[in-house]
Write a sequence for this structure.
């Protein structure tokens, strides 16, 4: 027999793995935003207002002011609907705050919905809906926004509508612009302001429904009164001392005394 000890295999006992901590489900919150596709017709072409955001992930609770690299993100003007606002009012306000121009809101274009996870705060899961409305340029100069909005918007500019869907960063907003392009091509009558549409002009009522024409109310002023001379002539009287020959009037005949 060999004097060398026999080789023995070492058996390692497997210890039970520690249980994994239970993952806490993310809190689901809902957000509603509103924005606008602002168009103008200039030199025979349609243009749309586009903004370049200046911050990343800003909310109304914990605002992170972190500048984006210039020229990386381009979007449509939009933002959260404030408490007490309707989506229409929120769209009007966001367009003015982020572009500096006033627009005439025509109709709701579409609503996009998506889910994302916040990278700030409690990292909640957010179900977000954004209502987009079609606007026509009204007044103001694009890019002249308030100083307190400069931390959110770097600049705003006009861009040709037929190429703008390739300029935007987010896929949902590119689809919004494609819908706007289709409306401009196929239904340009929808871009007419409501006050100038033919169907908004009140049609005349049928004869059976027309209101009767009211005669004007009688005048409350007193009719002109005739002068005193006219009243005397009507009664057949004369003024004392008046005669054809200028003589004094004769005394009435008195009965003779016996």
């Amino acid at each position: 027999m060999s004097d060398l000890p026999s080789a023995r295999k070492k058996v390692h006992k497997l210890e039970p793995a520690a249980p994994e901590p239970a993952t806490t489900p993310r809190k689901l919150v809902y957000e509603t935003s509103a924005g606008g596709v602002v168009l103008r017709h200039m030199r025979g072409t349609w243009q749309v207002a586009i903004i370049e955001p200046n911050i990343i992930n800003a909310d109304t609770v914990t605002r992170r002011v972190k500048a984006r690299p210039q020229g990386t993100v381009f979007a449509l003007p939009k933002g959260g609907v404030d408490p007490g606002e309707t989506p229409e009012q929120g769209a009007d306000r966001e367009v003015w705050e982020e572009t500096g121009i006033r627009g005439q809101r025509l109709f709701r274009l579409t609503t996009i919905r998506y889910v994302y996870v916040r990278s700030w705060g409690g990292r909640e899961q957010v179900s977000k809906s954004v209502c987009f409305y079609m606007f026509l340029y009204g007044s103001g100069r694009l890019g002249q926004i308030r100083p307190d909005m400069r931390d959110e918007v770097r600049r705003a500019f006009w861009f040709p509508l037929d190429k703008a869907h390739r300029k935007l960063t987010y896929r949902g907003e590119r689809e919004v612009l494609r819908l706007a392009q289709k409306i401009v091509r196929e239904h340009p009558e929808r871009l007419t302001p409501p006050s100038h549409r033919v169907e908004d002009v009140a049609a005349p009522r049928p004869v059976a429904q027309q209101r009767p024409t009211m005669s004007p109310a009688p005048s409350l002023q007193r009719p002109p009164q005739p002068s005193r001379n006219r009243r005397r002539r009507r009664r057949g009287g004369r003024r004392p001392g008046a005669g054809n020959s200028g003589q004094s009037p004769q005394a009435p005949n008195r009965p003779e005394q016996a």
